Amino acid sequence: MTPSLTLSAASDRLPIGALLALAMTGFICIVTETLPAGLLPLISDGLAISPSMAGQMVTAYALGSVLAVIPMTIATRGWRRRNVLLLTIVGFLLFNSITALSSHYGVILVARFFAGVAAGLAWSLLAGYARRMVAPQQQGRALALAMVGTPIALSLGVPLGTWLGGLVGWRTTFGLMSAMSLALIAWVLVKVPDYAPQPAHQRVSLRKVLTTPGVRPVLAVVISWMLAHNILYTYIAPFVAPAGLADRVDLVLLVFGVAALVGIWLTAKRVEALLRKTVLVSLMMFALVCAVFGLMGSAPLVIYLGVAVWGLSFGGAATLLQTALADAAGDGADVALSLNVVAWNSAIAGSGVVGGVLLDRWGVAVFPWAMLVLLAVALAIAAAAHAHGFRPGRRSAHGAAVVGH
To answer: Do 117 and 65 touch, CB atoms closer than 8 A?
Structure first.
């Protein structure tokens, strides 16, 4: 154990500045990924390409995250932790700058792919970094704070980026993302502690991580829960149209985002003592929303209330699932969290395909019932994984590991 970790663990105060730097990294990951969706017409006109070709900027980013995260995580396990974090942020600075300056579509696609590589590495690092800054009994709260950038980006970052694009142009908007990355580099250097790499004898192979009890059930819940979530989130515009809310999608997503922030706050209060119960309750809440949407989804008030409950149940998902996964994996937590990135992004990609097929064949009315099936699978797996993946009782009672010490 390093001296800095000993000092951090001995303190009862959360390192707010350092954790918020991690949250800002997650914010930049999400906004960089989703920004082209809001700027699609502007990018299409600016590069003289079709909207569908412009949309491949999102695809290239997702591919970079999925394909590179595991090899990059394994390759950088011998590096000091802050150097890895800085590498990911420098990646955003460089590749968002290329996107902002290049007029060649192929170059931009390559830049987007490598921005996705940076994001994949960042997501595999953030949870373990946040946990390592604090004592075991504070890990859940620390992770909740480090993950707060995600719902903020989803609820405010993308609409703000879209608005800025209309105001100053899409290239300047990507340039501003680079400026944020530059400021974040300075923030990390000042506030975020550095840690030694995990000792070689503690590093666990990918195969061993996958066969560690509890890891696969948690990953299965990640896939089924996130697939259900992203079917609705990706196709929220057509889903709310029958309720007459086609022109109020921004407000619907704002309700979701605010509720998700409340969900993160509640999760931070409950994750240490009630991780298992919170996972099960969150899944049941979302399942109830799906059932109500299936029966009364054409009423605007039902949509707004349902989206609020959905956001509340989803806000703490990243904290809950990454905490459960890291606890189950022990010394293999970094590799397990890279697998989480693959599972999460695969669910996002899969939701676009599955949701598109459902939409084309049966319409949005079938969405709630398909999501309900997925959530029933997630609930069954989480309920059965009481011995390892989602254990009952306080986390400290069953020796949650501090990642990488």
So the answer is: yes
HSE of 297 in the Cβ direction (CA atoms, 13 Å)?
Answer: 23
Q: Give residue 192's domain range.
A: 3-197
Mean pLDDT across the stretch 68-82?
87
Q: What is the CATH number of the domain that holds 236?
A: 1.20.1250.20
Local structure of 182: helix, strand or coil: helix
Give me the torsion for CA of 222, 225, 230, 235, rounded to 10°. Answer: 160
Residue with tokens 């293999």: 332
* Mean pLDDT in residue range 152-158: 73
Residue 205: is it exposed, middle or buried by C-beta count within 10 angstroms (0-12/13-18/19+)?
Answer: exposed
The pTM for the full model equals 0.79
C-alpha triplet 312, 345, 181: angle, nearest 5°: 85
Cβ atoms of 209 and 120 closer than 8 Å: no
DSSP state of 197: P
Q: Are residues 285 and 150 in the same domain?
A: no
Is the pLDDT confidence value at 155 over 80? no
Asked if 265 and 350 sit in the same domain, the reply is yes
> What's the distance, CA 83 to chain centroid?
22
Q: Please answer whether residues 138 and 14 qualify as being in contact, where contact means their C-beta atoms are separated by less than 8 angstroms.
A: yes
With respect to residue 403, please indicate whether it lies within any of the assigned structural domains. Answer: no
Asked if residue 92 lies in contact with residue 26, where contact means CB atoms within 8 angstroms, the answer is no
Q: Are residues 374 and 298 in the same domain?
A: yes
What does the pLDDT look like over 287-330, one tens digit per residue? 999 999 999 989 999 999 999 999 999 988 988 998 888 888 88
120/347 Cα distance (integer angstroms):
14
